[in-house]
């Protein structure tokens, strides 16, 4: 979808909008954020367009699956060229990138999301990297998914959500982890079985295309301007007719 950017000279320029970049992390001791991130990436993938799952951890990177979409393999090849030192694998519908769990990994992620500009990017990161990711100019996240147990971490979760909203991000809290089978399918890049995966409302809120509201707002403003001009024209015609009749 095209969006409009206002340049310094005052002219509008049309350019392609960037796909959503969503951060996923856990709050407190909540488990299941990695599988939730994978499930969100699977939900964002389309038959002809993969999504990118970036996982910040220092363990072994997953291997490519035997079955992967053509778009996932193409993105795997592109990222292998841009980031030869990182672990990248096409897995089912998604492309899985493993980066170091430190600020050097955050810096590398900016290049990865730029290389995958046409794909939704889901970044799973430990809680300590949330603020560095939010402050990174190369990432420009659009939303965040927090896996939290509200029985024990309600206050901490509320603070995190408020901070995200203040930064202009969409924030969604996942109260329960995925089931075992749904988690396994998501991590392998497979679409969820019926009744599995993330709730539809979670995916809809986080995967809404960024910049969508701006063209709608500009369209509404244009309609109002045209209506105002029409009213002015009608009023002028009535006034002119009145002057002719008096004459």
Instruction: Note the total helix count.
Output: 8
Mean pLDDT: 84
Distance between the termini: 55 Å
Give the low-pLDDT segments. 1-16, 210-224
Helix content: 40-55%
Order of H and E elements: EEEHEHEEHEHEHEHHH
Q: How many extended strands?
A: 9
Task: Kindly provide the radius of gyration, computed on alpha-carbon positions and rounded to a whole number of angstroms.
Answer: 23 Å
* Quaternary structure of the protein: single chain
In the sheet with the most strands, the strands line up as: 5-6-4-7-3-8-9
Please state the overall shape, judged from the principal axes of the Cα atoms: globular
Estimated structural class: alpha/beta
Percent of residues in β-strands: 15-25%
Main β sheet profile:
7 strands, mixed
């Amino acid at each position: 979808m095209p969006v409009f950017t206002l340049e310094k000279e005052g002219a509008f320029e049309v350019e392609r909008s960037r796909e959503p970049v969503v951060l996923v992390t856990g709050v407190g001791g909540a488990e299941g954020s990695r599988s939730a991130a994978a499930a969100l990436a699977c939900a964002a993938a389309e038959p002809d367009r993969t999504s990118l799952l970036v996982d910040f951890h220092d363990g072994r990177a997953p291997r490519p699956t035997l079955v992967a979409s053509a778009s996932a393999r193409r993105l795997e090849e592109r990222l292998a060229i841009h980031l030869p030192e990182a672990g990248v694998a096409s897995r089912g519908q998604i492309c899985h990138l493993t980066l170091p769990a430190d600020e050097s990994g955050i810096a590398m992620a900016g290049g990865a999301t730029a290389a995958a500009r046409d794909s939704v990017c889901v970044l799973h990161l430990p809680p300590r990297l949330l603020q560095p990711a939010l402050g990174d100019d190369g990432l420009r996240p659009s939303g965040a998914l927090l896996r939290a147990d509200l029985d024990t971490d309600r206050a901490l979760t509320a603070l995190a959500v408020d901070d995200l909203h203040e930064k202009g991000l969409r924030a969604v809290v996942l109260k329960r982890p995925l089931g075992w089978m749904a988690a396994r399918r998501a991590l392998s890049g497979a679409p969820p079985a019926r009744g599995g995966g993330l709730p539809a409302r979670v995916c809809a809120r986080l995967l809404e295309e960024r910049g969508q509201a701006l063209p709608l707002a500009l369209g509404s403003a244009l309609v109002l301007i045209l209506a105002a001009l029409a009213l002015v024209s009608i009023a002028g015609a009535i006034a002119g007719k009145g002057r002719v009749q008096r004459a």
